[in-house]
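Reading a protein record of the kind used here takes little practice once its layout is understood. Each number in the token line that follows is a code from a learned vocabulary of backbone shapes. One such record is shown here in full, so that the layout can be seen directly:
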Amino acid sequence: MSSYVKISPSILSADFSKLGEEIISLDKAGADYIHVDVMDGHFVPNITIGPEIIKKIRPVTKKIFDVHLMIEPVDKYIKDFADAGADIITFHPEATPNTLETINLIRKYNKKVGISLKPRSEISLIEKFLDKIDLILVMSVEPGFAGQKFMPEVLPKLKNLKEMISLKKLKIDLEIDGGINFENSKIAIEAGANILVSGSTIFKKNNGDLKKNISLLRSI
């Protein structure tokens, strides 16, 4: 895991009437990844985008598509998102009857594997799979809606994961998503995060100066 902090802007906060242009702007502004939140209205109480939209926006950038699946059942859709252009596919252990099978399915399509923990999800849900995954996404809000307030109570979980990863000498990225802004990005990084997902802060602060906002999040 690199000490360099990567920024993964969430396109949930973008202007969907010009989504391709927004992604090109993020690319030019220095985003490391493009974070795509996929919600089904079942696993979480909101509906966002599906594989067809990802397929349409895939040609506009070579940046890594960091796709967070908040859908259940998850396995039946993994091929669709892999084919659409996802580079990292992250799922919730609660959304599958067999976590290992889901990991193997993502690997089958040569994609990186991420597992996400909701604020109240225990580390024990994923502990035995740590040597089989590339990324852990710690949610610092309840998944389902943009614009929620950061929950600092998830930081001990992040610290514990960082210690476990170091102890086992594993190469796993630690990503945090939910209410990340200029005020809390530093404590998230100090707790162990090396990838920050942010939507509202990147798109709306400093009159929407994407480059400045991405740089500030990374350096604070």
